[in-house]
Amino acid sequence: MTFRKPITTLGGLIWWNNIKQNEHFIMQEHKVGLPIWPYKYRITMRQNGMEIANSNDLEEITLDWKYLERNAVPQIEHQIDIGEKASKIDYIGILNKVLKYL
After folding, report:
1. Domain coverage including residue 78
2. What is the CA radius of gyration of the chain?
3. DSSP labels, 5-24
4. Does 49 reside within a domain?
5. 81 lies in some domain
6. How many CA atoms within 13 Å lie on the side-chain side of 33?
7. 53-78: per-residue pLDDT in tens?
8. Which residues contact 23 (CB under 8 A, 6 or more apart)?
9. Domain total for the chain?
10. How far apart are the C-alpha atoms of 79 and 87, rounded to whole Å?
């Protein structure tokens, strides 16, 4: 299966046609595909534009779509980006604990 950790989308939006979408995901078809682009179809997250699946086979990407709807949507509120988690770290609290031991 082509499902993987979300990555920043490659290629400008002018190269993609939206073929299916819902409130969480967008399925797109590359206007040219192979040999110009390594895959023909992809699924991106609407929330952050990250690509989470790609394939050259429409049937396979459709199965990925169904899998994501069943399994990923209930967990969509969980953070996956380290940058977002890092902004919630209490740096002052950590610094105070370190200074307390010095």
Report:
1. 7-101
2. 19
3. S-EEPPS-GGGEEEEEE-SS
4. yes
5. yes
6. 12
7. 999 999 999 999 999 988 877 665 66
8. 46
9. 1
10. 12
Place of tokens 């989308």: 9
Considering the chain, what is the average pLDDT of its residues? 77
Q: Is residue 2 part of a domain?
A: no
Compute the distance between CA of residue 101 and CA of residue 54 in angstroms, rounded to an integer. 50
User: CA-to-CA distance for 6 and 84, rounded, in angstroms?
Assistant: 14
Using pLDDT thresholds of 50, 70 and 90, give the confidence band for residue 20.
very high
Choose the most confident range, by mean pLDDT, from 2-6, 24-28, 87-91: 24-28
Give, as one character, the DSSP assignment of residue 24. Answer: S
Quote the tokens at residue 32.
Answer: 């040219």
**Residue 41 bridge partners (DSSP):** 29, 55
CA distance 35 to 87: 41
Amino acid identity, position 8: T
* Residue 49 Rama label (left phi>0; alpha psi -120 to 50; beta): left
Asked if the structure places residue 1 within a domain, the reply is no
Tokens representing 87 are 């902004």
